[in-house]
Amino acid sequence: MIKQVLTILLTVIFCLPLMAGDGEYAVGKIPVALLKNANVVKRFEETRYEISSYTKMKVYKKDVITILNENGDEFAGLFEFYDKFRSIKSIEGKIYDATGKEVKSLKPRDVEDRSAVSEISLMEDSRVKIHHFYHRIYPYTVEYEVVIEFSTTFMFPSWFPQPAEKYAVEKSNITVSVPDGFSFRYKAFNYTGEPSIVPAKDGKSYNWQVNNLPAILKEYAAPEWPNLTTCIYFSPDKFEFGGYKGAMDSWNALGQFQLLLNQGRDKLPDAIKQKVHQLTDGITEPREKIRILYEYLQKNTRYVSIQLGIGGLQPFDAAYVTAKAYGDCKALSNYMFALLKEANIKSCYTQIKSGEGKYFFLSDFPSDQFNHIILCVPLPKDTVWLECTSQTLPTGYLSGFTSNRPALVVDENGGHLIHTPRYGIKENFQHRNIKATLNEEGTLLVNAQTSYGGLQQDDIHGLINNLSKDKVKEYLHEQLDFATYDISKFNYVENKTAVPTIEETLDIAVTNYATITGKRLFIVPNIMTRNGRKLTADDERKYDMVFTTDYRDVDSVEIIIPAGYNPESMPQDVAISNKFGKYNCSVKLSGNKLLYYRSIERYTGRFPAKEYNDLVKFYEAIYKADRSKVVLVKQETTKGF
Amino acid sequence: MKPKLLLNVLFFLITISSTRAQDKLKIKFGSVTADDFKTTVYPIDSNAAAIILADIGSTEIVGNTKGSFSLLFKNYRRAHILNKNGYDIGNVEIRLYTNGESEEELDNLKAVTYNLENGKVVQTKLEIKSSVFKDKVNKNLVVKKFTFPNIKEGSIIEYEYKIKSDFIFNLQPWDFQGEYPCLWSEYNFAMPSFYNYVTLSQGYHPYTIKTSTTSRGNFNMADNRGVGATERANFSANVVDYRWAMKDVPALKEESYTSTLRNHISRIEFQLASIGEPFTVRQVMATWKMATKDLLEDEDFGEQLSKDNGWLSEVMPLALRGAATTTAKAKNIYEWVRDNFTCTNYGRKYLEQPLKNVLKNKNGNVAEINLLLTAMLRKANIQADPVILSTRSHGYTHSAYPLMDRYNYVICRTETEGKEFFLDASEPGMGFGRLGFKCYNGYARIISPGAEEIDLNASTLKEVKNTTVFIINDEKGNSIGSIQQTPGYFESVRLRSLAKEKGKEQVFNDFKKMMGEDIKISNTRMDSLLNYDVPLGIAFDIDFIGDKEDIIYFNPMLGEGFKENPFKSAERFYPVEMPYTIDETYNLQMEVPKGYVVDELPKGAVVKFNEEEDATFEYRVSVSGSNLSFRSRLVIKKAYFLPEEYEVLREFFALIVKKQGEQIVFKKKATP
After folding, report:
1. Contacts from B8-12 at CB under 8 Å and sequence distance 24+?
2. Which residues of chain B are within 8 Å of residue A112 when distances are taken between CB atoms?
3. DSSP notation for B279-311
4. How far is CA B456 from the centre of its chain?
5. Chain A, window 379-418: residues with a beta carbon less than 8 angstroms from a chain B beta carbon
6. pLDDT averaged over chain A?
7. How far is CA A490 from CA B83, B169, B188, in A?
8. Residue of A nearest to B127 (CA)
C-alpha cells in the first residue's frame, strides 16, 4: 500500500513539472497533419515591414521553427545578409527542447560575421551574420528575432512562409505598414481572400496570414515553386535608392529609372570613337557593323564583377571600361551601347532574369525581378540580341542563359517588355553519324561525327572555349559513357551563326564493347546516345508537368562486325509517338554490317498530373530500347552428309 | 610504401655551396621589351593559357618596435597571358592573417599590365587606391584583392608586394608549383642564427639551385609599447642565406584517387625549431616526447584531462547507462558523446572553448568532442589518450618531427580488457572502434607520456563485401530466389545515411533499379540498421517475371559488380591512393530454369595483378546436372599503387568490367 502511494506520489511529482513546463512550442502541440512528410515545421512567423519614408523601412522578423530530424538541420541556422542599404539592428535567438522548455539563448559573441562576396565577383559589399545552435537531440525548436533597417524601398522582399519542400507551416503572418501617400502593389499566389487593412499611425497597415500549410513533396518536372506554395510579391509604386528617385508602377517607369542611372555614362574617349569609325565607316549593312563592334568588344574586354552600393544597378561608365578593359554585365552592355551609338546604331540597355530554365516571371507585375543585363539592338526587320559578358558567343545568340523570356528593354522613352528569341525543335538538334568496326576481341573502333545545334551546343561551346585542349581531352576521358576507352582523335568546329552549330569528330577505341564468346556476339547497337532517366510510377502525382525545351536527336550507326555471324536475337523496332514526344529505333543486320537508327523528339508544354504515369512508361520504354542488345551466333560450318 | 621523393626532411647546415652566376634570373620590375611578347607558345606546355615567367619570393627576419622580430616577405611575379582562358591569372588575392591583436600588413604593392601596341610596349598601371579591395572574410582573415587593368590576349602582367608579419611561428610555405606552368620559381630565406627553422621539401620536380651562404647581419629592435622611453637593442648575428629555385615547373594536375594534391605539389615548408643567442636558448620544436608533454600541459589541449573534472559527475550516469564491463562502459560513453554532440569543424586540433562549455553547448570542433570523450572515459577509470593525426585531404605527416601544422584532427585511443580501440565521436554514423577512412593517412601520434607513434595505413583497412544468391524453380516452373548481402563497412555507412535521409525503401529501390524490370523484389529485410558497430545485413527475395523467350540471356551478377572502369584516364602522373583495400565475393547457386538447358557459359578466369598478387580477380562458372554455380571474387590487398603500376591496374579493371558483364545463355529444350 505504501509502495503504491509512493508510486502515485512519484508519478504526480514527475508529471506535474513536466506538464507545467510544456511550453508554447512543445512538439506535442503541432497538429498531426503537419507532421506528414515534414522535416521541419514552422511554428510561428511574424514579419513586419514598417515603412516610414522612401528611405526608411524597418523590417522585423520573428520565426520559430521545429526541426523534427537531422534532414531539417539545414533550416535551423540563421543567415542574415546585409550591405550598404540594409543594416542589422539586432539578433536574438533561443532554443527549446521537445517539451518547449528553453534550453539556452543566443549570445552575441556566438554570431559570426562573414564576407558574403559571391564566387563570381571580385568585390561586393554584401556581408552575412551567421548563427547556429548545433543541437542534436530531435525534435528541437529554434527561435530567432531579427530587426533590419533598409535605407531604400527599392528592395521589397517577397513573403515565402514555406521556403522549401518537406517544410510545413503552422502559423505565419506578414504586416506591411505604410504612411499616407505611399502606395505599393502585391501579387499573391495560392492565397485565398484579401489582406485585412486597418488604419495605423499616419497611414495604413496590411496583413496577410496563413495557417496549417502541409509539407510539399517536390515532383519531377513540377511547375516552379511559387505556383505550389503560398507566397506574395511586393512592389512599391515609388522608391528612393542611393540618392536617386524612381517609380516602378509600370514597366515604363522602371525603365525610366534605369535611364536616369545611365545618364551621361556612355561618353567614349576620343581614341575609341576613332576606333569605332575606323572599324565601321564605309560599311552600310547595320548587321555587319554590329558584328564588327561586338567582336571588338569580345576581343578587348573581359567580365569582372564589382558590385558596390548603387553600383549594383548603375553601370561603370564607358570611359572606365575603356581604361580597365573590364566590367560586369551592366558596364559592358553600356559600353557596347556607346560603341553602337558612335556608329549610329540605336540599341537598348535591357534588364533580364537570367539562368538556365529560370522562366518564372511576373509580366503583369512591374517590379525588380532582374539579375542581369544584355543589349537589344532593334533593326527595321528584326532584332539583334547581344550578351556582352561573353568573349565567345556568336553575334546575336543568347544561349539557354537568357533566351525565351520577357526582358525589360529600355529606350529613350522608358521601358517595355519584349520576349527574347526562343530556340525550338528545329534549332536544338543533335545529329550523330557513327561508323564503327568491331574486332574479334570485342574492341570497337568508333568514328562519331556529331552536329549539335542551338541549346544543345551550349555546353560544348562552354567546354571548348573555356578549357585548353588537354583539359578537353581529360574531360572527354572522364565523361563518355563507356567502361574503358581511349580517345585517339577529337576535333570541334564552330559555326558561329546567329543560331550556332558545332561539328564534333571523335575517334574512340572502346575496349570490350561487345562480348564475344565462343559462339555468340553480344552488342548494344546504340553506342552513344542513351537516355539515362528512369522515373518511379506514382498514382498520386499532384502537380502538372512542365517541359520548357524541345529538341530532336537523330543517330545513324553502322557497325562492321567480324564475318560469319547470324542473328539470334534482334531487338524489336520501337515506334512511340505521344504528346511528350516521339521515339523511334530500329536495327538490322545486312551482311556483316549492323545498321542502327534512332530518333527522339521532345516537346514543350504543360501536361496534367494524371498523365504522369504515361510519361513514366515513355521513359521506361526508351530506357530499355536504348540498352537492348543484339545477339548474334556464329554460323556453323555445314557438315556434309 | 611511399616514393622517396615525397617527403625529404632536411636539417639546415647540411650543404653550403656557392651560387653560380649563370643561375641568376635577369628579370627586373618594369624591364619588359617588345621581344618578350614574341613567344606565343612555350615549349613547357603548348596548351597553357598563361605562363608564369618568374615567381620570386624571399623572407628575412627584421626587428620591430614591439620588442621582438617580424617576418618580412617579398614576392615578385611576372606572367604572360596567352589566351582568354588565362585571364584569371590577372585576378590576385593576397591573404593577410589577423588574430585581433596583430595584423599582417601589406606594403609597396605595385602592379602593371604590358601590351604590345603597334610594336611598342604600352604600360597600364593598377590604381592602388581605387582598385585594390579589402575583403574582411572573417575575424582571422583579410583578403586584399585586385585585378589587372587592360588585360588582353598576349598581355604580360607583373606585380610585387611586401608583407610584414609578427607571426614568427607562421613562416609561410613556398609553392613552386601551381595552376599554371612556371618557368622560374625561386625562394630565398635569410635565417639568423637566433631563429633556427627546419625545412621540409616535397614533390617530384628537382631543384635547379639549392645553396646557402653565411654572412654577418645587424639587427635592430625597439620597444615603444611601454610608458617610458623607447628601449632599443642592436646586435649582430650570423645569417645563412638559403636559396632554392626550380626551372620549368609543370602545372599541377587534378586526378581521381588522389587523397590530396597537397601531397604532390612541389613545395618547401618551414617550422621554427629553436631560438638561440642572444635570446634565452630554447628548443621550440623538439622531440615527440617533449611535444606531447607540451600538448598535455596546454590548456587548449590536454590540461583538463589530468584533472578530476567534477563537472562531469552529473552526466556520467547518463552516459554509462548502467554498463558493467569496462568495454561496455567505454562503448556507452562513446555512443553518448557521438549521439548528443554536433561537430562544427572537422579540421581542428586545439580547444576553442573549455571542455566544460563543450558539454554545456553540446557542440564543438573535432578536437573538443574527442577530448571530451577522452576526459569522460578517464572519469570512468578507463585508460584513454588523445591521438593527433592528419586527414587524407590534409596531406601526409612525417613521423620523425613533431611538425604541428601537419596535424589537423584529434581522435581517442582507449584500451579495455586488453584490447585497443580507436574512437571518433565526431562522426554520427561511426561504430565503436571504427574510424572514417579519412583518418587512415599514415603516421598518427598518441598524446601520452610514452608518445608512441601509430600507423593508420589505408592498406590495413579492408572493405569486405559478400553477396550470396540462391535461385530455384518453384512448383509452377518459375525461377525464384533470395539474395543476402553484407556490404562493406563504409558502404554500410553510406546506405545507413541514405536510409535515414530517404527511407529504407530507397535502398531497395536502388537494388530494383540495378536489377532491371525483369526481376521483382519482395520480402525486404535490413539488419543492423542502428547497430553501427557492424556492417548492414541486407536480404530480399526475387522473382523472375520476364517473358520466357526461347533463349534467355542471363547475367549472373544480377546488376552487381563494376560497370565502369574506375580508372578512366589513359595517363597517370601521381600514385593511386585508394581509401581502403577491397575483398568482394559474389556467389550464386542456381537451378537451371525449368524446360531450359545451358547453351553457353562464359569462360572462367583467374587474373593476377602482379607476381605478388597485390590484386586478384577470380571468375568461375560451372554446371553440374541442373545446378549452376557461379563465383566472382575481387581481392585488392593494397591501397597504394605507383604511377608505373597504373596501366596494369586500368587493364585489370577493364577485364573485371568485361567478365562481370558476360552472359549465361539458356535455351529452351526442344520439345520431344
Report:
1. B8/B200, B8/B201, B8/B202, B9/B198, B9/B199, B9/B200, B9/B398, B9/B400, B9/B401, B10/B199, B10/B200, B10/B201, B11/B198, B12/B191, B12/B196, B12/B197, B12/B198, B12/B199, B12/B212, B12/B240, B12/B242
2. 138-139
3. SPPEESS--HHHHHHHHHH-TTTTGGGGS--GG
4. 14
5. 391-392
6. 93
7. 21, 51, 44
8. A324
Question: How long is chain B?
Answer: 672
Which one of B135, B340, B551 has the shortest CB-CB distance to A569? B551
Cβ-Cβ contacts under 8 Å, A511 against chain B = 654, 658
Q: 3-class DSSP state for residue A72?
A: helix
Residue A316 has pLDDT above 70, yes or no: yes
Whether residue B13 is predicted with pLDDT greater than 60 in this model: the reply is: no
A70 touches B499 (CB < 8 A): no
The conformation of residue B49, written as its DSSP 8-state character, comes to S
pLDDT tens readout for residues A156-214: 899 999 999 999 999 999 999 999 999 999 999 999 999 999 998 889 999 999 999 99
Tell me the chain A residues in contact with residue B565 when contact means C-beta distances shorter than 8 Å: 483-484
Query: Do β-strands B419-423 and A372-378 pair in parallel, antiparallel, or remain unpaired?
Result: unpaired
Report the distance separating Cα A534 and Cα A536, nearest Å. Answer: 7
User: How far from chain centre, in Å, is Cα B227?
Assistant: 49
Q: Do B564 and A483 touch (CB under 8 A)?
A: yes
- DSSP, collapsed to helix, strand or coil, labels residue A164 as coil
Residue B27: what pLDDT? 85
Instruction: Tell me the nearest-neighbour CA distance from B78 into chain A, angstroms.
Output: 19
A268 Cα to chain B: minimum distance (Å): 16
CA distance B586 to chain A (A): 20
Across the interface, of B150, B562, B599, the residue whose CB is closest to A324 is: B150
Which residues, 6+ apart, have CB-to-CB distance to A278 below 8 Å? none
Alpha helices (runs of H) in A343-483, residue ranges in sequence order: 399-402, 458-466, 469-479
**Average pLDDT estimate for B179-203:** 94
Whether residue A512 and residue B341 make contact (CB cut-off 8 A), yes or no, is no
Q: Is it the case that residue B284 has pLDDT exceeding 90?
A: no
Whether residue B8 is predicted with pLDDT greater than 70 in this model: the reply is no
Q: Which residues of A touch B133 (CB under 8 A)?
A: 122-123, 306
CA-angle at B425, arms to B419 and B431, nearest 5°: 60
How many interchain CB pairs under 8 A, A with B? 134
Quote the CA–CA distance of A505 and A510 in Å, as a whole number.
16
Residue B541 reports pLDDT greater than 70:
yes
| Terminal Cα-to-Cα distance of chain B (whole angstroms) | 65
- Return residues 272-311 of A near B (CB < 8 Å): 299-300, 302, 304, 306
DSSP label at residue B476: T
Residues 6+ apart with CB under 8 A from B28: none
- Please count the other Cβ atoms lying within 10 Å of the Cβ belonging to residue A89: 13
The per-residue pLDDT for A488 is 94
Interface test with B, best of A36, A121, A278, A324 (most B CBs within 10 A): A324
- pLDDT tens, residue by residue, B350-379: 999 999 999 998 999 999 999 999 999 999
- Calculate what percentage of chain B has a pLDDT beyond 90: 78
What angle, 0 to 180 degrees and rounded to 10, lies between the N-to-C axes of helices A329-342 and A286-300?
140
Cell numbers found for residue B631: 563465383
Helix (H), strand (E) at residue A177: strand A167-179
Residue B293 backbone dihedrals phi, psi, to 5 degrees: -60, -45
CB-CB contact of B477 with B595 (8 Å): yes
| Longest Cα–Cα distance in chain A | 113
pLDDT (0 to 100) of residue B330: 97
ipTM above 0.95, yes or no: no
Distance between CA atoms of residues A437 and A454, nearest Å: 31
Indicate the pLDDT class of residue B340, thresholds 50, 70 and 90.
very high
